[in-house]
């Protein structure tokens, strides 16, 4: 559906300050009459600038946004929130919006902004109404605003009413290629779509402190913290943004931010205090810290903490960040061994456990990064398996007889998950699968996919193997 053909009259990419309100107003043949309309024009300029830059450069939205705010310090906290939430909302519902017309046409873009604010019930409804007015839509705004948006089907009904000439389906909210490589039972599709169309909470993990004590201290700071029913050290921090550097527990290394699905990986590893583990693709060390924390928690006088963890990555800056986080947590027993070639950076046949958290398409993190579902393509999934199998095969050489090999990704695709593990086992008969019990459902399985709708988390995959000879 189109509300007119007035194009944007300037190139946002070449104009970092966006369009002036006067130029924007002329493109839609309307003079802003209210303060809300003037502010709406200003916000739209900035959001359009960022939206196009992300689509054109295929750079992650959070990176583009961080760079923009770093260079444009004029925006206050409220402005930043409107810009940030509206930008991510556009990507979250882009599967619907892209069918409504050319977003380079000013009225169309205003309509998308208004719809996104209505769908997510953003508190700046005066701005949303201004966008609706600038879109010159014939649909009554007050009627749209009165509609419920509690469920995904409610949101679908709203966009159908706002854009009556366009056909929308729930499956449109994820790219068509996703369904080709991430199959799920038909009856579970609505659950997955609803989860992927919402923001997950911020999950945290206590280390060196009792989780109940941590939650009480966080609640005293008016943070919406609550204990997880699944893991003793996990807690939910709600969905509101927070400045971690203002929280003493974080600055003291007593809590770490880690999605609950990611925490499943460490729980499956279940390292004993005496064991030696290698985190072969450690990144900035989230799972390294979790493994060390689990070792400390399990240690007793009869079973003292004498084990260690070696962390490896190809990126020096990631390992530097890991070292800082380990120091902040006052963790010893963690050492660094950077990958510098195809050769193992550690001794072969040495470790009780090896974790391979392999690079992947990250489809399981799309709830937090809705832009990536539209920036990536089928190749993001299909071009990873060879590398993943190679990393898993090389890393397996470090596992000693009787030791454990854990393979994990934040992908939802069997192409990167079950198929990689199956190919590895065919080539390495000395390894066999160890059954896993799903921590959220209690189901026992050979290989585990954590779906985002099961416990309001990201998506993850994990398989545990044992070296028998």
Short description:
With 469 residues, this protein is α/β, with parallel strands linked by helices.
Tell me about this structure.
This protein is α/β, with parallel strands linked by helices and 469 residues long. It folds into two domains: 162 residues, no CATH class; 209 residues, Rossmann fold (3-Layer(aba) Sandwich), CATH 3.40.50. It is built from 21 helices and 14 strands. Strands 5, 6, 7, 8, 9, 10, 13 and 14 form an eight-stranded mixed sheet that branches. A four-stranded antiparallel sheet has the order 2-3-1-4. The chain has a two-stranded antiparallel ribbon with strand order 11-12. β2 and β3 form a beta hairpin. The longest helix has 23 residues. It is globular.
Number of helices: 21
Strand content: 5-15%
- Based on helices, strands and strand pairing, what is the structural class? alpha/beta
* Average pLDDT taken over every residue: 93
Radius of gyration: 24 Å
Beta-strand segment tally: 14
Features:
2 domains, eight-stranded mixed beta sheet, alpha/beta, 469 residues, Rossmann fold, 21 helices, four-stranded antiparallel beta sheet
Layout of strands and helices, then pairs:
Layout: H1 21-27, H2 35-57, H3 61-71, H4 77-92, H5 94-97, H6 106-119, H7 125-134, H8 141-145, H9 152-162, H10 176-181, H11 189-196, E1 203-206, H12 211-220, E2 226-227, E3 234-236, H13 248-251, E4 255-257, H14 260-269, E5 276-279, H15 286-298, E6 308-311, H16 316-328, E7 334-336, E8 351-357, H17 372-375, H18 379-382, H19 385-396, E9 399-409, H20 418-427, E10 431-434, E11 436-437, E12 444-445, E13 448-450, H21 452-455, E14 460-467
């Amino acid at each position: 559906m189109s509300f007119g053909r007035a194009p944007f009259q300037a190139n946002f990419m070449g104009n970092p300050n966006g369009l002036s309100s006067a130029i924007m107003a002329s493109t839609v043949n309307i003079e802003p009459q209210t303060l809300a309309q003037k502010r709406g024009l200003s916000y739209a300029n900035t959001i359009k600038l960022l939206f196009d830059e992300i689509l054109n450069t295929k750079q992650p939205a959070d990176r583009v946004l961080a760079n923009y705010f770093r260079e444009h310090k004029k925006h206050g906290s409220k402005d930043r929130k409107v810009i940030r939430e509206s930008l991510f909302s556009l990507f979250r519902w882009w599967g619907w919006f892209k069918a409504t017309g050319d977003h380079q046409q000013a009225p169309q873009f205003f309509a998308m902004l208004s719809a996104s604010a209505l769908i997510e019930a953003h508190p700046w409804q005066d701005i949303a109404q201004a966008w609706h007015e600038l879109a010159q839509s014939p649909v009554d705004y007050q009627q749209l605003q009165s509609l419920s948006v509690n469920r995904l089907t409610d949101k679908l009904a709203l966009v159908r009413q706002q854009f009556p000439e366009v056909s929308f389906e729930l499956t449109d909210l994820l790219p068509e290629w996703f369904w080709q490589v991430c199959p799920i039972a038909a009856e579970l599709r609505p659950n997955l779509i609803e989860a992927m169309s919402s923001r997950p909470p911020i999950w945290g993990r206590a280390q060196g402190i009792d989780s109940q004590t941590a939650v009480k201290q966080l609640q005293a700071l008016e943070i919406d913290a609550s204990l997880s029913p699944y893991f003793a050290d996990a807690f939910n921090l709600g969905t509101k943004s927070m400045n971690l550097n203002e929280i003493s527990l974080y600055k003291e290394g007593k809590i770490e931010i880690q999605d609950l699905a990611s925490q499943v990986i460490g729980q499956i590893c279940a390292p004993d205090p005496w064991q030696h583990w290698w985190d072969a693709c450690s990144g900035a060390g989230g799972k390294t810290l979790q493994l060390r924390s689990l070792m400390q928690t399990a240690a007793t006088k009869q079973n003292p903490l004498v084990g260690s963890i070696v962390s490896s990555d190809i990126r020096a800056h990631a390992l530097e960040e890991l070292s800082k986080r380990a120091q902040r947590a006052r963790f010893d027993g963690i050492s660094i061994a950077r990958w510098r070639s195809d050769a193992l950076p550690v001794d072969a046949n040495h470790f009780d456990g090896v974790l391979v958290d392999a690079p992947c398409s990250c489809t399981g993190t799309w709830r937090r990064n809705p832009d990536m579902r539209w920036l990536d393509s089928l190749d993001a999934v299909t071009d990873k398996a060879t590398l993943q199998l190679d990393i898993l095969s090389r890393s397996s050489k470090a596992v000693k007889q009787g030791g454990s090999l854990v393979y994990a990704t934040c992908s939802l695709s069997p192409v990167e998950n079950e198929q990689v593990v199956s190919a590895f086992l065919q080539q390495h008969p000395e390894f066999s699968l160890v059954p896993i019990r799903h921590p959220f459902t209690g189901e026992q399985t050979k290989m585990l996919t954590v779906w985002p709708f099961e416990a309001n988390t990201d998506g993850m995959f994990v398989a545990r193997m044992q070296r028998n000879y």
